[in-house]
Amino acid sequence: LAQACALAMPWPVESPKFWLRHGGGVPSYDLPAKVGSPKGLRLKGPVAIEDAYNELRDRGFLKGPRLLELGKSFYAVKSHHGASLHGVVIDGKASESTALHSVVALESLPRCRALLHKVLDLLGLDKSKLKDSLANGMARRYKPGSSLPRHVDNTEMFQEPVIAIVLKSGARPDGLRLCHRPTGCHGGGVRVIAEANGALEGDPVAKFRVEPGYQIQESDGMVVALEGPSRYDFAHEVPPVSASRVSLTWRWFDEEFLQQLQQRE
Fold this sequence. Notes:
Largest sheet: 7 strands, mixed
Number of helices: 6
């Protein structure tokens, strides 16, 4: 079998892990993510998250909805943007009253806000650009089997970076995963890493395909910042988790984008 297989590893041999996808499909072939791998990824911490976690708990988030928005609502802006492209104006108060999940002002969660500012200082980021008025926070609660679909945060709507704070880590290997975008500048997509000839002449060649990526090895209080290629050339996701997980993600709207949206309305 060894002679029949021609290996073409997409990554250097560095303790990669194979993960079978929930429901089948191409398995993941992941390396542990680390600072600068992929390029632009920053990992910090652990930071003290107990106050923010308890604040969310006291609001009933840990037993209520699995998604809570903080600050400026992404889903409200997304709805307004989609409508404006078709010449439709949505009433702001009406869109807020029909939201499918809760949206709270950043000021009403002072401990979460303090954690955000602490993280910005830790990362050395410019608060004059990453204003509270432009911030969109997403508190997400995962139960076993739940996931976050693969995506790239809208590059027109949001600035960089995208920051995730792990308030409660799940079990290994639960957590954030990064993978190449199929149309990204790195090529991306599924790779063939092994081939095996059939037993008889003329038999088809069997190919073993995997999807290479990077797995964040999470812990409570970890800070993940996506900048540069890790923000724009990689997609990120949370595959189905095996244990409870809670995260707080922060993005900042592009001020020019919001101004243009307001002009169209």
